[in-house]
Design a protein that fits this description.
Bound molecules: heme C
Helix content: 10-25%
CATH superfamily of the largest domain: TolB, C-terminal domain
Largest sheet: 5 strands, antiparallel
Structural class: alpha+beta
Strand order of the largest sheet: 1-23-22-21-20
Number of helices: 5
CATH class of the largest domain: Mainly Beta
Number of domains: 2
Number of strands: 26
Radius of gyration: 23 Å
Strand content: 25-35%
């Protein structure tokens, strides 16, 4: 979406009175939803196949690939139209028709969810066309982007197994976590040492040893892990610990966050889990909903939430749900699988999270707010059936994302550019995509309007993005497992 602009729709204000009512009404829905599972078409009471519906109903005018031509239609495959600013107009065009041009309305025969699913289908067609004109980044040459040219370098090519996160100690040594449970300490010459004595971790689907984040004061190192259940290694729950390094030995471990054993599950998905710090002594982290869908809307469980604690693990008194939740660290809810978390130069907290098929999000995280999963979503079901619409109903207090990827990129690591090596990127969000195999730079204007640019594509699944102490942009790739960096090119 190079150089495009999207309109920031949010924020919708949170009203705490109404919010409590919502939580109560979701309580009954949860049991039913979980029994059905996330992708059961009955969730939307539809058994529609979106591709078939488009091909049967729309393609005679708009073309099977959106190329247009029938009944005087123009192509849908332009860069300008492949943009969030047309989400609502597209939806409305299908709902009420374009009578003056000979397109009838579909609002009387299709639900809003079905109409939205057709917009998603058009987005998938547009993405295919958009990608064809944008080849994979050539790592051997200077890469030209809107504001800076860069060169790519391999930094770590050995000792990696699904590398998950990168951070640096105050002395410049780099830490890299491998998802199966090992952590490398890498000095400036590239010499690797494996850290000894790490907590026990289970690699269960998407979980394992995940985040490493060094406290701004440098002494404590925080980790997020898939912690095995007592007596059952096939169940796990996201846990946050901190410890220190004595040489390459992990010592003085303390637990910052853990949930009761009853919340440990065998679900191999949506663990979260990133960690970041503000300047007032707080640590923020996120826990995914583990496929639990509606659990993300309820305060009685730890899933699908972003947390704020004091950096020693104690609970700040002014947290929003200290009196209402057994997890008083909760800061916001309604998250699916948040895998990016970063505080920008203005002190604002951002997350990136995975939608299912379509609709990964960048959210500006505010105290006590509901981010909507699974009540609203840009996505359709993986089986090509309609799911939701992106827009809350009048009585739903839900924050809309500041930016969305449609189709999904598998949003993963996120950092804010705060270095000096690429001065024109200062303050911008750098967001990685796993299935998208890409790195996006996003700028959020004071008005909330966003613009974005794809900086890198096609070299592997982008798991983590971190701005190094030297201002270079470090990227942890999976498949192939590699750490690369972007450094300025003088052209
Ligand atoms: C009889 C022909 C016809 C059929 C069938 C038809 N459309 Fe259209 N549609 C048009 C015309 C004509 C326009 C206006 C001209 C244009 O935008 O190309 C239009 C406009 C649109 C637009 C707005 C495009 C823009 O760029 O702003 C969307 C979105 C759309 N149609 C989607 C659909 C979908 C989805 C279906 C099937 C449910 C459908 N149409 C069925 C003829 C048709």
């Amino acid at each position: 979406m190079a150089g495009t602009t999207t309109l920031y729709l949010g924020p919708v204000k949170v009203n705490f009175g109404v919010f409590r009512l919502l939580v109560l009404s979701f309580a009954t829905a949860t049991t039913v939803m979980c029994a059905l599972g996330p992708n059961n078409p009955k969730l939307t009471s539809q058994t529609v196949n979106v591709t078939n519906l488009y091909n049967d109903t729309c393609s005679k005018c708009h073309g099977v690939n959106g190329e247009g031509g029938g009944a005087g239609t123009k192509t849908l495959l332009t860069d300008d139209k492949f943009d969030a600013k047309y989400d609502r107009p597209y939806f409305e065009a299908i709902k009420v028709g374009v009578p003056t041009m000979g397109m009838s309305e579909y609002g009387s025969t299709m639900s809003d969810e079905t109409i939205w699913s057709l917009v998603v289908h058009i987005r998938e067609l547009q993405a295919k066309a958009w990608r064809q004109s944008r080849p994979r980044t050539d790592a051997s040459k200077i890469v030209h982007t809107d504001l800076h040219d860069y060169l790519m370098e391999d930094v770590v090519t050995e000792g990696l197994k699904t590398p998950w996160a990168i951070d640096w100690l105050p002395d410049g040594k780099m830490l890299v976590t491998n998802r199966p449970g090992t952590m490398l300490l890498i000095d400036k010459s590239g010499k690797q040492t494996q850290v000894e004595g790490l907590p026990k971790v289970v690699e269960l689907g998407q979980g394992g040893l995940m985040e490493v984040a060094v406290h701004p004061k440098g002494k404590w190192i925080y980790l997020s892990i898939a912690d095995p259940k007592e007596g059952n290694d096939r169940q796990a729950m996201t846990k946050i610990v901190r410890g220190q390094l004595d040489g390459a030995k992990w010592v003085k471990e303390e637990t910052i966050f853990e949930a009761g054993q009853e919340f440990y599950t065998g679900a191999g998905v949506h663990f979260g889990s990133k960690i970041t710090f503000d300047k007032s002594g707080h640590v923020f982290f996120n826990v995914g909903e583990r496929g639990g869908n509606m659990l993300a809307q309820k305060l009685d469980n730890p899933f699908g939430k972003i947390y704020r604690l004091n950096d020693d693990g104690s609970v700040p008194k002014d947290n929003p749900y200290v009196d209402e939740s057994p997890f008083p660290g909760m800061w916001s809810f309604g998250h699916r699988n948040p895998q990016g978390l970063a505080i920008d130069l203005k002190g604002r907290l951002w997350d990136t999270e995975h939608g299912p098929r379509g609709g990964d999000e960048v959210n500006l995280i505010k105290k006590g707010s509901n981010y909507g999963w699974p009540v609203v979503a840009f996505s359709i079901n993986y089986n090509d059936s309609p799911f939701r619409t992106p827009w809350p109903k009048a009585d739903e207090d839900i924050e809309l994302p500041a930016f969305r990827w449609l189709p999904s990129i598998g949003a993963s690591g996120l950092d804010i550019y705060a270095g000096d090596a690429f001065p024109k990127w200062k303050g911008d969000l750098l967001a990685g995509g796993l299935s998208g195999a890409n790195l996006t730079r996003i700028r959020v204007a004071d008005s909330g309007e966003t613009s974005s640019e794809e900086l890198l594509f096609g070299l592997g699944r982008v798991r983590d993005v971190r701005v190094g102490p030297n201002g270079y942009v470090y990227v942890a790739l999976n498949q192939p497992d590699k750490i690369i960096r972007l450094r300025p090119a003088k052209s």
